[in-house]
Amino acid sequence: xxxxxxxxxxxxxxxxxxxxxxxxxxxxxxxxxxxxxxxxxxxxxxxxxxxxxxxxxxxxxxxxxxxxxxxxxxxxxxxxxxxxxxxxxxxxxxxxxxxxxxxxxxxxxxxxxxxxxxxxxxxxxxxxxxxxxxxxxxxxxxxxxxxxxxxxxxxxxxxxxxxxxxxxxxxxxxxxxxxxxxxxxxxxxxxxxxxxxxxxxxxxxxxxxxxxxxxxxxxxxxxxxxxxxxxxxxxxxxxxxxxxxxxxxxxxxxxxxxxxxxxxxxxxxxxxxxxxxxxxxxxxxxxxxxxxxxxxxxxxxxxxxxxxxxxxxxxxxxxxxxxxxxxxxxxxxxxxxxxxxxxxxxxxx
Amino acid sequence: xxxxxxxxxxxxxxxxxxxxxxxxxxxxxxxxxxxxxxxxxxxxxxxxxxxxxxxxxxxxxxxxxxxxxxxxxxxxxxxxxxxxxxxxxxxxxxxxxxxxxxxxxxxxxxxxxxxxxxxxxxxxxxxxxxxxxxxxxxxxxxxxxxxxxxxxxxxxxxxxxxxxxxxxxxxxxxxxxxxxxxxxxxxxxxxxxxxxxxxxxxxxxxxxxxxxxxxxxxxxxxxxxxxxxxxxxxxxxxxxxxxxxxxxxxxxxxxxxxxxxxxxxxxxxxxxxxxxxxxxxxxxxxxxxxxxxxxxxxxxxxxxxxxxxxxxxxxxxxxxxxxxxxxxxxxxxxxxxxxxxxxxxxxxx
DNA sequence: CTGAAAGCGCTAACAA
DNA sequence: TTGTTAGCGCTTTCAG
Lengths: 349, 349
Prior knowledge:
Two copies of one chain form a homodimer.
Chain A: H1 12-19, H2 23-30, H3 38-51, H4 57-64, E1 69-74, H5 80-95, E2 99-104, H6 109-121, E3 125-129, H7 135-141, E4 148-151, E5 161-164, H8 166-179, E6 184-189, H9 195-210, E7 215-220, H10 225-230, H11 232-237, E8 242-245, H12 248-260, E9 270-272, E10 289-291, H13 294-309, E11 318-320, E12 323-325, H14 334-338
Parallel strand pairs in A: 1-2, 1-3, 3-4, 4-5, 5-11, 6-7, 6-8, 8-9
Antiparallel strand pairs in A: 10-12
Helix pairs in contact in A: 1-2, 1-3, 2-3, 5-13, 8-9
The structure holds a DNA duplex.
């Protein structure tokens, strides 16, 4: 009848009974409280072992007021960057005996808020990864979520931020291409209105302003392979010689689509990605990108959380500076070197 | 002073007081118990809203005996296949109001057991993904973990399994290459002694036995990029014309290393991977592999768990049959078509 | 239909 | 040093 015939796990009183002591003594022994007669302690431990007793984390949590768990909400568990962040965070947390509850909002902006609140209630703190919600909503939500740390997003003081410095990285990517002679660019933007996207757009603007002879056109795109692939026509029609993709996924999608059109990268079009996910060196050609230390970010997010949990107040935002990784998807602009006429349907000069 | 100045969350009695009812009435209202005077119910709901009251999941869990949480243990959160499984599982669980606790054993076999036990105690059930531990240990551990579902691993009846049929898939990969004229193979094996690895080795044996003229040499390798890259010399020295990699990561590493040696894939060596992670179509050349529906596996794992949670007993193991995906990393064996002498240092014929 | 009271399993004063 | 007892916040009999 019973689907789970295993006998109920022993409770603290079972151990107490078996060891012939009171349950508080057992509790003390289990919690390494030194004020216990070694003889008794040994007896208790033996009894516990015999019964295979482990304190119920639930009951402990209730009385202690802490769960030894932090929750992490990410916009998409399928995104390699969030995976890396999660991995870094989870391993760091584990080292300190903390567990990790994950929540995948599946890019559903509307759900993000409740998800955050719900997850937070089951844990001692919350790490919000690149929340997609509006700034005003975020700012309003955050106080009720404390302790909370933000990843790749900022809010008012009081909540720590760990992020990659996308702005300067994007600038660097632009300068790299500029140095190669490129003057006409497209930027494939991510989720419109998202904070990460706005950030990058700011960098794009800075880049524009820094060079009078530069033309960069922003194209609404997305954050995945398909988005990059779908954008191929717009990119080619734009007449740009170089494409700055929102991230590596978009870049890979674009790269693949461009190649399928019979054009060559970087000869006909230079492409740069963003993040340096572990696959960019295996694309054809290997992708020039900006390396974001996602796992370190996750680890640092835990450091901040840990500090908050210890009762400290938020520290200053931490920004990791991405590093330009030049591979083979970028090259000097054709016209600049060969002054040759475009050889393709979509003139790129 | 107080690092988290937000006032304590309201408790059920606060709501009761404000609504002028007993706390049991509040409880009833919060749990949709219909036996409550609509007028009172409304008053309670208003009070709850005003106070922004939400029942403590902890306290509920303690009394209800369930946490609405399942835990998932994976050997490596960095592995795209586990990520996909986790994603499928997490989304399916969320749909039914369940939360997901993750634990990354970081390929530390020794830790797997305790991790599983600990995670299990904080949740209502456990999903063990491709546990690396020995079969005897697994069999012994499982009963204390119920309800538990196994992914890519089997045990005695009573615990459901959801897995990919690696054996027949590997056979299919072999036959594909055989059909292209290949007769000398290397198989880059994964973690020695791991169950997944043994499974594949069995398939290799079957393949050997099926063809008298086939020579397949198993090389100890690993499960990541680097392992595949490091194996390049051994692979080339082996004289094989085709390599069966443990998974796509290994295949990509090998592919990259082979290319760096100045050899060409598939001309000088055919390579197949395993899993069809979302990056294989962007390698150079795109990788022939066997597509494993990892996200579906995760989803199905939840279905099994859900069934167990509902009190049903374990159903029969479910095996997903991978699908051969022929891309450009495999080609007819050179000698078979051109009868040409090998043109490289490491003769491949 | 509603309230009082007994736990869920554990920790932490407080006494002894 | 050890035991007794009062909660942690909630659900659920059991009376009313």
